[in-house]
Amino acid sequence: MNTPNFSSLFEPLPLGRGGVTLPNRLVMGPMTLNQATESGHMTDWIVDWYERRAAGGIGTIIGAAVFVSQNGRGWANAVGIADDSYTDGWRRCVEVAHRHGALFGTQLFHGGAASKVSLLGQQPVSASEWVREGFDPARALTEEEIEQIIADFANGARRSLEAGCDFVELHGAHGYLLHQFWRGDVNHRTDKWGELTAFPVAVTQAVRKAIGPEVPLVYRFSLHADDPAATNHPVTPESLAVFLRALEAAGVDAWDISCWHESRRGYFGTDVWLPDWVRQFSEKPRIVAGNLLTPQQASDYLAGGHAEAAALARALISDAAWAEKAEQGQGEQIRPYEDSHWAALREGIDISRDH
Ligand SMILES: Cc1cc2nc3c(=O)[nH]c(=O)nc-3n(C[C@H](O)[C@H](O)[C@H](O)COP(=O)(O)O)c2cc1C
Questions:
Q1: Where are the domains of the chain?
Q2: From 50, 86, 176, 219, active-site residue
Q3: What's the pTM?
Q4: Annotation says 176 is catalytic
Q5: What is the 3-state secondary structure (H, E, C) of the chain?
Q6: Residues 52-101: tens digit of each pLDDT
C-alpha cells in the first residue's frame, strides 16, 4: 500500500512583513478550554494542553478567545489578558510552544452581548441594545466606552508581545463584539460607530499601532453567528469586499476564516466557497477552519486552492500528535474525532493523554 504523502501540509508560510514564517500549514484553531482560574488567569492544565499540541507537530497555535476587558468575558474560567497580571501566564504558553518549534499567538476577544449578568456582575454591552439568544439583554455602549474597549484591545496586543507572542489574532467571528458591530441587524447606531466597518477598523488600527508594522496581525471572521448553517446573514459579496478591503488597509496580514463545519459550502446563493469569495477581494493568506479533520481533507483543501493554511480544532482535541503522525505517514494512527472527546474536554479531561 502506498503511504499517502502530505508534504504540502509541511511547507512553511511567510506571514506579514517582518519575516515571521509559519513552520508548516497546520494551525491549531482557537479553542476556549474553560480551564483557567475564576479570574481568567493561566493554569498548568492549559499550559500542558498547548505543550502537548506543540510537541505533536502543529506549527502554529492560536491560543483561545482571550478577554481584553473585564466586561468582555464570555465564559466562566476562560482566559484573559485584561491587565498586566495576566501576562506571565501567556509567557508560559509561548515558552512551551517555542520549545517545540511552534509559533504562538493570542486571540483577542470581547464577547459583547454574548454574556450574562451572573458572569460579569453588570449588564452585557453591545453596539446597540440587543438580546443574543441564550444570553442576557445587552445595552448599547457609550462612545467613551467604545474608545476604552479599543484601548483594551491595543493593551491586550501589547501584553501579548510582552509575553513573547509571534503574532496576534482579533476575534471578529461568531457573533461576538467585533462581529456585532459589523452586523447590520445588530448595529443600529446613528453615531460614527453605526458605519458597520468603523469599529473593526478602529480596533485593527489600534492593535496595529500597538504591535508595530512587523508583527503579523490575523483577523478571524465568520458570516454566521449563532447558527453556522444560517444563510440569512446580512452580508453580501459587495459588503464583504468593503469589509475585507477596509481591514486590509487598517493593517490585517492574514484572514482566519471560520466556517464552523461548513468550509465546503457555497455562499451567497452560489457554489463558491467562502474562502474563494475572500480570494476575489484580498490577496492575503487564508487560514481556514471548518471540518478539516483528517490529513487527506486538509491536504485536499489546500491543494484545491481554498486556503494557504488549515486550522484544526476538534481534530486536536482527539489527538495532540495529529500533525506529527501525518508528517510521518502514520495518518491511520490518528485517533478520529468523536463528540465524546469534546464532552470529555468539558469535564476537564485532555482525552489525547490516554492515546
Ligand atoms: C472546544 C472548542 C472551543 C472553541 N473556542 C473557540 C474560540 O475561543 N475562538 C474561536 O474563534 N473559535 C473557537 N472554536 C471554533 C474553532 O476554532 C473552529 O473554528 C471550529 O471548531 C471548526 O473547526 P473544526 O471543524 O476543526 O473543529 C472552538 C471550537 C471548539 C471545538
A1: 7-354
A2: 176
A3: 0.97
A4: yes
A5: CCCCCCHHHHCCEEECCCCEEECCCEEECCCCCCCCCCCCCCCHHHHHHHHHHHHCCCCEEEEEEEECCHHHCCCCCCCECCCHHHHHHHHHHHHHHHHCCCEEEEEEECCCCCCCHHHHCCCCEECCCECCCCCCCEEECCHHHHHHHHHHHHHHHHHHHHCCCCEEEEEECCCCHHHHHHCCCCCCCCCHHHCCCHHHHHHHHHHHHHHCCCCCEEEEECCCCCCCCCCCCCCCHHHHHHHHHHHHHHCCCEEEEECCCCCCCECCCCCCEHHHHHHHHCCCCEEEECCCCCHHHHHHHHHCCCCCEEEECHHHHHCCCHHHHHHCCCHHHCCCCCHHHHHHHHCCCCHHHHC
A6: 999 999 999 999 999 999 999 999 999 999 999 999 999 999 999 999 99
